[in-house]
Design a protein that fits this description.
With 289 residues, this protein is of the alpha/beta class. It has one domain: P-loop containing nucleotide triphosphate hydrolases (Rossmann fold, 3-Layer(aba) Sandwich). The chain contains eight helices and eight strands, in the order E-H-E-H-E-E-H-E-H-H-E-H-H-E-H-E.
């Protein structure tokens, strides 16, 4: 299987802010943030804690995991989740190297549906939208598996540039992403304790893959943190903060409230620069999806 993507020889691609108006949906500009990290890092628990704090400040805040799936997307999701191309039995892996590319393309198709049909509309309903499942984790997974089985004619150091080129037309980059830095062995113990999200204690494949996934995630976070300044031609509207990359938050064994407070501080700084019309009374409550 060949990959036909024009590669640039310049700096990493710039990433446009999620705050750029979308004529198709006519949305107001909600502040969009995502919580990143490997399985078991505590993304969902932290998202709920941050939501509670921001709601207390009067911001109508939604936490979103995934939107509803139907039709082809639902059928494809069932295939990817229940009968994945990457086997999880024994040491796992793909039956044939080219299946890594097929797996990545199918997962990105599913992700494109989420970004286009669910994340953008949801962003028009609240002041702050928190995505709790790690939107960049999908790119980290793709980077990890394609590093194991690089497509013919594509050097390993070109993989990330190709991935960014593929998702650029539809990927809704958050204004702010937070990478919850948890050592992968600790994260795996947590995932095993809850019994899902890579938490099968008997899975040798998960145990072997998680360090590679963690390394790819950290590499992605480091690169995107220096590559997310919007292009001047895509400047955000007045009062809308530009994308700020991925901020690493040392989580580990820290209390959940401490981690949530650190993220809250970052978001309040960004929210303080936004139009006052987006600040609602606490009586509005929180949006929950």
């Amino acid at each position: 299987m060949s990959v036909d993507v024009e590669l640039s020889s310049g700096p990493p691609p710039t990433i446009a802010s999620a705050g750029v108006p979308n004529p198709r949906f006519g949305l107001r500009d909600a502040l969009i943030c995502s919580l990143e990290g490997v399985w078991g890092a505590g993304k969902t628990s932290t998202a709920r804690a941050v939501q509670e704090r921001l709601t207390g400040h009067g911001y109508r805040t939604a936490v979103m995991h995934y939107g509803p799936r139907s039709g082809v997307i639902a059928a494809m999701s069932a295939l990817l989740d229940d009968d994945p191309l990457r086997s999880r039995d024994g040491i796992g892996g793909y039956r044939a190297p080219h299946l890594a590319v097929v797996d990545v393309l199918l997962r990105l198709c599913r992700e494109a549906d989420q970004h286009r049909r669910h994340y953008r509309p949801e962003a028009g309903q609240c002041d702050v939208l928190i995505l709790d499942h790690g939107v960049y984790g999908k790119l980290a997974y793709a980077l990890a598996v394609l590093t194991e089985h690089p497509p013919p004619g594509l050097a390993p150091d070109q993989l990330l540039e190709v991935l960014l080129a593929v998702v650029r037309p539809w990927f809704l980059h958050p204004h702010q992403a937070f990478f919850l830095d948890v050592p992968w062995p600790l994260a795996r113990e947590r995932a095993v304790g809850r019994g899902y999200g890579g938490g099968d204690a008997a899975s040798v494949e998960r145990l072997m893959f998680l360090p590679h996934f963690d390394a790819a995630y950290r590499r992605l976070a480091a690169i995107l943190d220096s590559a997310t300044t919007p292009h001047p031609a895509e400047a955000s509207p007045a009062g809308v903060a530009p994308a700020a990359g991925i901020t690493t938050v040392a989580a580990g064994l820290r209390p959940l409230d401490d981690v949530a407070a650190e993220i809250e501080h970052h978001l309040l700084v960004r929210l303080s620069a936004r139009p006052a019309v987006l600040t609602l009374s606490t009586e509005e409550g929180a949006c929950v999806r």
